């Protein structure tokens, strides 16, 4: 009577036990049929994965653009506080631009611009952040695309509030 696992044969017994015997002999490698099945399964997984990503792309773009604008508003507020200068953000449908006020020339100079891909941005005002941390020209900023939208509101105290809104 044989015992399982075989005793006294050492470690290689498991390799012999789980390796299937090939019909064509002991040649190493894969048959053409095995390679074709593997390639076809991988191509189907790739197609299904790319289709699911296409549905997620607008949602990801909306999230990234909202995060970018929210982070930049916070950065502009802190830049105004630490530099002691007025800083303004101007929003256009596909971008925003940050301006710094130069009191010597009494004019605004651009210091940074960023394009937001896959979203439409609208604002009722261009907020101006003051060195005291407050905001004038209070603004409501809407960021939208096909997956929904976000509304960012600025309070006079400099507080930035983010709210999700439903798609139209």
Q: What pattern of helices and strands is seen along the backbone?
A: HHEEEEEEEEE
Number of strands: 9
Q: Order the strands across the largest sheet as they lie in space.
A: 3-2-1-5-6
CATH class of the domain at 57-165: Alpha Beta
CATH topology of the domain at 57-165: minor pseudopilin epsh fold
Radius of gyration: 30 Å
Question: Number of helix segments?
Answer: 2
How far apart, in Å, are the first and last alpha carbons? 75 Å
Helix content: 25-40%
**Whole-number mean pLDDT:** 85
Gross morphology = elongated
Give the DSSP E fraction (strand runs of 2 or more residues): 25-35%
Largest sheet: 5 strands, antiparallel
Unreliable parts: none
**What's the architecture of the domain at 57-165 in CATH terms?**
3-Layer(bab) Sandwich
| Name of the CATH homologous superfamily of the domain at 57-165 | minor pseudopilin epsh domain
Quickly give the structural class.
Answer: alpha+beta
How would you sum up this structure, described in words?
This protein is α+β, with helices and mostly antiparallel strands and 168 residues long. It has a domain at 57-165: 3-Layer(bab) Sandwich (minor pseudopilin epsh fold), CATH 3.55.40.10. Helices cover 35% and strands 30% of the residues. It is built from two helices and nine strands. The strands form two sheets. The protein has a five-stranded antiparallel beta sheet with strand order 3-2-1-5-6. A four-stranded antiparallel beta sheet has the order 4-7-8-9, with helices on one face. The radius of gyration is 30 Å and the shape is elongated. The termini are far apart. The model has no long low-confidence stretch (mean pLDDT 85).
